[in-house]
Amino acid sequence: MTFDILIQNSTVVDGTGKKPAFKADVAITDDRIAAIGDLSDAQADLTIDATGHIVCPGFIDVHVHGEIALLTGQHRYGEVSQGITTLLTAPDGFGWTCLSPEQTRELWAYTRFSIGQVDLPLGWPTIEDYLSLFPDNSPANIYPQVPHCAVRLKVMGWDARVATDDELAQMGRLTRDWMEAGAGVLNLGLDYQPSANADFRELVALCKIAAEYGGIYAAHARYHTLGRKAAWEETIHLSREANIPVHISHERVDEEAAELLDRIDREDIDLTFESYLYKAGMTHMYMMLPMEYQSGSPDEVNKRLQDPTIRSRSLTELQKWLGRGDQIVGYTRSGRFIGQTLTEAAEETGQSIAEFAYDILLKEQEHQVFVFPWQVDPEIAETTVRRTVTHPRMMIASDGVFNIPHPHPRGFGCFARVLGHFVREHQLISLEEAIYKMSGFPARRFDIPDRGELSEGKVADIVLFDPETVAAQSTFENPIQAPVGIPWVLVNGTPVIENGEPTGHLPGSVIRHRK
Q1: How many angstroms separate the CA atoms of 72 and 70, rounded?
Q2: What is the band of 514 on the pLDDT scale with cuts at 50, 70, 90?
């Protein structure tokens, strides 16, 4: 027996969550797993000794702002260094295809906080123009989602109103085009522009099209306009009305969510969610303004914010969201205040926290993003994280942002932290369950073909890690640090991480949903 790559003396965790770890060798030919078992007599072009290491399926990040980082920038390998071999595009409905040049510029500016400091030649008139950027030019695979922000912008611009029948039909055709191109999910960011302007009728209409193709609905729910409980209720109602599985982005199991999840269990609602398992989020400061002041293009919003009356009305809302002022400045175009808390920066400028935050918007405009610690008691936050990691409807997703000076540590450490912190150190979940939540579960839920399971015939997206040393090194103080204990990552049978370092190979592909 001769193979391209042979991984010997490994402990296999297959990603299904059903089978305990077992000793075996793993052989790879071309981009597929050719054999699993006792292969001690086999030969290979490359042999990897995995003694003391776990071999498992590559991790799948279902919500991460990383697709542009895969193409360019200093953090091109930031995701794969922690074992992520496939990521989903268009988190929060962000995307830049099928738009006019001016619309592309506007949406690129609006989403700058999630893209980071990178510059690409803009302009992807068709879906395939965009998807063609990735094959053999990315260290990881992508799995496309329908970017609702771009779909709505193409048809309705930034208008904060309900769609007409004709506009709804146009958005439906664009959604269908994406599903025909292999998207498996309709993704929305219902607190972001212009998705926030979609009414329930629009959601149902587009979800019914996605459901025709066996797709699912995933969204940043409508927290800021409806409130959390009502946003969950809208998602549940949508699942029933459109007869579609639903998924909620970056959630956690506190008391309020626990009650909702108990009801979801009782009523057998087809709902899942994901979490990054840190006690802080990350977004731009526009999100903290009253929703009526967020609507419109970036240029329109920035002009509106110069109005003294709007400033006065916004300060109260900002103070409500900012609380203790412990938010961390992650990125400003000027480079000022990066790494400082709002309290520290406000004291430096002699302003209140809310005044400083508002002036950041005026001066930096869309070139700003912040880490937002949960404004809850630390003991409650810890209990919430522990309840979240064990919940059976929860999978792992980093929500990472790259190519900015001071990102959230989850982008470089989320998946490694699960293995080191929650499995080894605190033993809150088993190794098999953790790997399932990072591979088999997302593959099954989002219907990603040939991934998420280590078995013969599957694509050789593989992670090799040391269960005794794997750990996240990124922190809130020093977030740009690769994890340790993950010496090998293979994508489509090609090593992209070798002995803990990027190889320079770019074997990523576009994984298309099976219609």
Answers
A1: 6
A2: confident
Residue 242, helix vs strand vs coil:
helix
What pTM was estimated for this model as a whole?
Answer: 0.97
Residues in Cβ contact with 2 at an 8 Å cutoff, skipping those fewer than 6 apart: 42, 43, 44
Query: Could you tell me if 25 and 37 are in contact, meaning their C-beta atoms sit under 8 angstroms apart?
Result: yes
- Residue 124: strand pairing partners: 97
Report long-range pairs for 378-384 (Cβ below 8 Å, ≥24 apart).
378/279, 380/254, 381/279, 382/279, 384/252, 384/253, 384/254, 384/279
3-state secondary structure (DSSP) of residue 418 = helix
Cα 129 → chain centroid: 22
Domain boundaries, the chain: 59-279+375-448, 305-373
461 — pLDDT class (breaks 50, 70, 90): very high
- Report the first-to-last Cα separation within the chain, whole angstroms: 36
Helix (H) or strand (E) holding 23: strand 22-29
Question: pLDDT, tens digit, for every residue of 403-431?
Answer: 999 999 999 999 999 999 999 999 999 99
Q: In the block, which residue shows the tokens 């709804």?
A: 168
Contacts of 345 (CB under 8 A, 6+ apart): 329, 337, 356
Q: Is the pLDDT of residue 515 over 90?
A: no
Q: How many residues does the chain have?
A: 515
Where does 59-279+375-448 sit in CATH, by number? Answer: 3.20.20.140
Q: Which residues pair with 35 in a beta bridge?
A: 27
